[in-house]
Protein 1
Amino acid sequence: MAEEKQLAQAVSEKIGPNKEFSSNLAFAERVGVSEATIQRIRHGHIPSLTTLRKMAEAIPEWGLLELQRMAGVEDIVAPGGERDEFSRALVNASALLTPAEQRAVMALIKSLVTARKDEERKANGGG
C-alpha cells in the first residue's frame, strides 16, 4: 500500500460511528486543523509537516516519525541537524501539491541524491 494511503487509512479508522471521533469535524477540532484538511488527508493528500506535528500532539499513540512514515515523507534536516530555510520551504511547498506531484518530486530528489553519491564515489576512487 502506498504510504499516503496508509495515513488516509489510519485517519479513516479513527472517524465514524462507534469510533474515537464521530466526524471529520470532531477529528479536525481535536487536531487543530480545518475539516477540509482532514477530508483531503482521507482522500490521499499528504499534509504539511505542521499538520503532521499537530496530529502527533493530538493523538498520543501516533508519534511524529510514525505519521511521517505513513505519509511517505521524511523530516528534511540539514547535515548540522538544523532545518535550513530551503528545507522549510520545500516541506511547506509540498503541502500544496497533489499526491501524484509529491511522489514525482520525491522521485526526482531521490534520483538527484543517488547521482550525487555516485559522482562522489567516483571522485574518491570508489569506481
Note: The chain has seven helices and no strands.
Protein 2
Amino acid sequence: MLKEILFGGLLCLVISANAQEPAKPAQNTPQDIQLTFTDKPEDLITTAETSIKTAANYDKGIEAMNMLLLMPENKFSRRGLELLGLLYERMGQLEKAKIRYRQYLNKYPDTDSTQRVKERLITLEISDPEIQVNRLVAKTPAVGHSVKINSSVSAFVFVGASTSNNKTMLNQEALITSVRSSGTFKNDEFTTKYQLRFNNIHNFLNNQPDKVVISSAYVSVQDTFLDRGLKVGRQTSNLGPLGRFDGLVANYGLGNGTSLHFLTGIPWMGDNNPTHRFFYGGAVTIRPLSDFSSEAYYNVQYADHLKERAAVGGTLRWQKPGGAAVSATSEYDVLYRKLNSFTLQANVPIGKYSIYTLYDERESPVLFADRGLLIGLDTNNKQAYNSVGDLVNNSHMSTDQIYNFINKNTSIIRTYVIGVNRPLGERWTIAADVQATGMTGTQDPTFVPTPESKVSQLVQNGTGNAYTVDMSLLGENVLKKGNSMSGLISSSHDATTSTFALTGVIGQKFGDQRIDLMIKALKHHQLAIQSDVILSTLRYNRHISDSFALDAEVSLSRTLTVDSILNQSLITYDELVYFGLVYEF
C-alpha cells in the first residue's frame, strides 16, 4: 500500500509540473550570456559548458555553477559540482578546484564520473597554475565596484520504509529545510565575501531527534593588491587544521609570491562533543620558481588542556607546462615523533591517454586524544571515558602513558592507485583504475590495557589488504542532444569480503525538465553471508517558474540475504521518496 501511495504522489507532482508552459529559451549567444537569478538549472549547465568549450567567460561559468549548487540536491547538482571544479582549474584557482573535486568524491563515490573526477583531483594536487605567473610583471590595484549575491531556500519531504517478513516499518519521515547564501562585494582592490549554509532537519518519527547543521558561516576581507586579509567564521583550511573549525585566518603578503598566514580557532566536531578543543598555527606559501610551488605549516592543538597535536607539514609541487606533474605532501607529528602522513602523486599525459598514480601512507584514525578514551574499559565501570578531561583527571596515568597508548593503538594505512583514461571520439570517455590498500598494526581485541601495565604492547602486528578495480564509460549526447549514458563496473575484495557492482545510468533533457533512471546490481559476500541487491532510482527535475523549481526522486531496492551456516534467507524491500520545492532569489 505504501508503494502505491508514494508512486501516486510522485505522479501527481510530475503531471502538475508538466501542466505549466515551458519558458522560452534565451536568445543570447554563448559569449554574451548575462546571468540572472532566474536562470534554470539546465541553462546554468549550458553556460558553464560553453565557458569551458570556448575557453572564455570562466567567471560567468563559475557564477552559474555557484547558483546551481545553492539549490537543493537534484540531477544537475552532480554535473554542476564537477564543472565548478573544472572551471576553477581552468582559471588557475587550484585550491578551490581541489575542494570541489573532494566534495564530489565524498558525495558521489560510486558514479559514472567518479574516475574522471578522481584523476582531475590527483592532477590538481600535483600541479599549480599560479606558479606559471611572471612575477616581474608590475601589479596594479583593481579598479571598479560590483555586488553579487546568490541565495536560495528549499524544503524537502523525505519518506522511507522497509519491508521484510511481510512487515512494513517506516524508518524515515523528515522535513529538511536548507538555506544557502553567498555574496561578493568588490570595491577597487578590496574584496569582501560571505557564505552561509545550514540545514534544519525536523524528524516526524519519535526515535529520531531534530538537528540543525551549520556547515559554513564566514566573512572574509581581502586587499587583493597587497595580498593581505582576514577570514572569520566556520570554515576550512589546508594549512594545518583538520576539518571545519570556528576561527580566523589572517594572511600577509611579502611580495614575489610569498605569503605568511596565521590561524587559530576551535575545531568543529559536533555540537555535543564533551571535549573542548582549540588550535593555533602558522604557515608560509612560497612560489619562487616558474615550475615549482611549496607551502609549509606548523599546527598545535589542545584537548581539555592536553596537547594532542603538534604537526609540521608541507607540500612541494612540480609541473611541466602542458606535461607531467609530480607532488609530494608530508606531515610529521613532533608530539608522537612519527610521520602522520605522506603522499606522492604523479600525472603523465601520453598522447590521448592520461596516466595517474598515487601512493598514500597515514596514521588511521588521526592521532587525537579521543583515542585514549578506550582506556576506561579497564576501569571498574567498564566504560570508555566521557572526555579527554575525564581521561586525564581519573585514569591516574601520566601524559606519556596516554600518548603511548594512543600511539600504539593506531593503525597505518597504505594506499596505491594507478589509473588511465582517454576519450573515444567526441561523445565517449573510458577510464579505469586499480587500487590496493593495506593496513598494518591492527589492535588486538583481546588485550585491554591497565595503568599497571604501563600501556605497553597494545598493538599486535597484523596485515589486512583490500583491492579494488573500477572501469567506467561515459557518453554525452549519444542518442540525441541532451542525452547522457554511462556505465560503471566495480570489483573489490579483501581477506573476508568481496563485492561486485554494475551500474547503468541514462538521462534525457526535455526543455526545462530532465529525467534520469539509474539501475544498479550489487553482489556482496562476507564470510558465510551473501547479499544480492537490485536498486533502481528515478529522478525528475523541472523549473515550474523563474523562481521555483521542483525536484523529486523515487528509489526502490530489493535485497536477498543468505546465511549459509544457519541455512536462512531473508528478502527486504526498501523504498525512499523525496520531493520538494526550491525558491531562488
Note: The longest strand covers residues 167-187.
